[in-house]
Amino acid sequence: MDKLTQVKTILKKYNQEHLLYFYDELSDEHKDMLLNQILNINFDEIISLYQNSLEPSHLDINTVSPLEHLEKNKFSFDELNKYIMIGEKKIKSGFLAVVTMAGGQGSRLGYKGPKGTYELSFDSDHIKKSLFQIMCEDIKRANQKYNIVIPWYIMTSQENHIATEEYFKLHDFFGYPKDKIKFFIQENLPLIDVNGKLILQEIYQIKSASNGNGNVFKSMKNNGIIQDLENNNIKWISFGGIDNVLLKNVDPLFIGLADEKNYEIASKSIFKRRPLEKTAVYCRKSGKPSILDYDDIDINLSVSRYEDGTYKYREANILSHLMTLNAVKKASNYSLSYHRAFKKNAFVNDEGMKQVPDKPNSYKFENFIFDIFSYFDDMLLLRVNEDEEFAPIKDFTGIYNPDTAKEKYEKYWSINKTDS
């Protein structure tokens, strides 16, 4: 059976024949590109994800309980020093690596290119810095302080991998030792419309997108990153997203707490100030660490407190995690559940023209890194100060916009100049 016949058989089985509507108009190169892409798609997976996502999900509230947390601002001076010293010893011993999840594009910011290349203009220094440069400077400060070079692993996507590598080369890796930075590509999945049809990005290409930050573990395994961590005698891995300009990639207190208290995984949180804000919070489900999605939070849950007045369900996720290498190896063997997002995506219509919708038209399926928590019995949760550690850039219209992030960044560093 030749390749075209094989593809036609697959598409007929899954009712996706429209993907070949423009096949006869394509060059030989584009024909081969499209056929190969179709042959590499797991149609059973994407169709099952679509069909299963149409079923309403119901949270059994009886399975939900609070996840205990510590608060950084409640530690005494001696306690802080104790855990910081433990963490600094681990860092100085070369036991820490950093993983930055940077597979996204800057489209929500009206920016073409990898999100990590998006630049902020800082009034205080009269210069522009990209998110990658800001992240790099954070890790370099730790390198200088502890007289080490921390291995830095950057997860890209198929969409932005080449552009990200070229950007680092263009800027000479921002002075970071090149052999200590490794890029690896996460997996992706096709997008699917409301009728269960895959959509075309071009008449010769199916539109796909990276499948979420929860894919980081499998991608690390498949790209040899876990083996590299073992070769470098790494014990702890710090995970964070590219868009938080106040992210502390190297935090001795965080490491010291997790190590001393024998946790395999740890996360940071901030206090959720508005009870019904659309932000997921930490909890336990059936006794295991988990996340409570904002759609499942009612006012009764959000205002419930312990006897000492502490809120039970107000610890919001900021995508700042810490895991042992053994925990990462364990995580890489699990297939996490997928979450569905309804998005606006340009597509090729029946006339072969690119069309930009004015409202969401397709579904994207993603793994989330926090779903790995439920495979562990317990975890450390540390509440930190939002003004010191959380200034993400999501879009122009929401509360997490570039201007707000820039303002918080400049304010923080005007106070903490001695750390720079």
Notes on the structure:
The protein is α/β, with parallel strands linked by helices and 420 residues long. The protein has a domain at 66-269 and 319-369 and 378-383 and 390-419: Alpha-Beta Complex (Spore Coat Polysaccharide Biosynthesis Protein SpsA, Chain A). The protein is built from 13 helices and 22 strands. The protein has helices at 3-13, 28-39, 43-53, 77-92, 131-146, 161-170, 216-222, 225-231, 252-260, 299-303, 325-331, 386-389, 402-415, and strands spanning 64-65, 70-71, 96-101, 119-122, 127-130, 152-156, 181-185, 188-190, 192-193, 200-202, 205-206, 208-210, 236-241, 265-271, 281-285, 288-292, 315-324, 339-343, 347-348, 354-355, 362-366, 380-383. The strands form seven sheets. The chain has an eight-stranded mixed sheet, sandwiched between helices. Helix 6 links the parallel strand 6 (152-156) and strand 7 (181-185). Helix 1 packs across helix 2 and helix 4 (77-92) crosses helix 9. The longest helix has 16 residues, at 77-92. The termini are far apart.
Give structural attributes.
420 residues, alpha/beta, Spore Coat Polysaccharide Biosynthesis Protein SpsA, Chain A, eight-stranded mixed β-sheet, three-stranded antiparallel β-sheet, 13 helices, 22% strand, globular
